Amino acid sequence: MANVAPARADDLPAILELLERSDLPRAGLADHLATTLVAHDGGAVVGSAAVERYGDAGLLRSVAVDRAYRGQGLGTALVGAALELARRQGVRTLYLLTTTAGDYFPRFGFRPVTRDDVAPAVRQSAEFTGACPASALVMRADLD
Asked: Mind listing the pLDDT tens digit of every residue in the chain (144 residues)?
């Protein structure tokens, strides 16, 4: 299986390409490369997950696995590593937006909430202010 590691600057083009192929927003990701994780198989980026930190709140975003690698536990490994990264960064409440994976994230402790329930700083992120449609499901996990 591919290994999960912190993203490097030279991973950014491949991450953005993976997000494009996965129909996920790319806006703002470059600003959070330091808290982005990738899965490599050989030299290729085959998965990603990122955490945007806003004080003790955060946004899980850009969770993507290349189609050829789905169903092998890579998404679970990426999300688990992202949750651990968020905890180490001091994030106590993690949010996400999804249009297609609402059934996937409850296994990690995420539950649906309204946009009004989201920390104000997170609501100012690129994902909330335009990258994701208003119809996207908002979910929250408490990490403490």
From this structure: 678 999 999 999 999 999 999 988 888 899 999 999 999 998 899 999 999 999 999 999 999 999 999 999 999 999 999 999 999 999 999 999 998 888 999 999 999 999 889 999 998 887 777 756 667 889 999 997
Residues contacting residue 65 through CB under 8 Å, at least 6 positions apart: 22, 39, 46, 47, 74, 75, 78
Q: Looking up tokens 């992120």, which residue turns up? A: 125
Q: What is the pTM of this model?
A: 0.93
Half-sphere exposure of 125 (CA within 13 A, CB side): 32
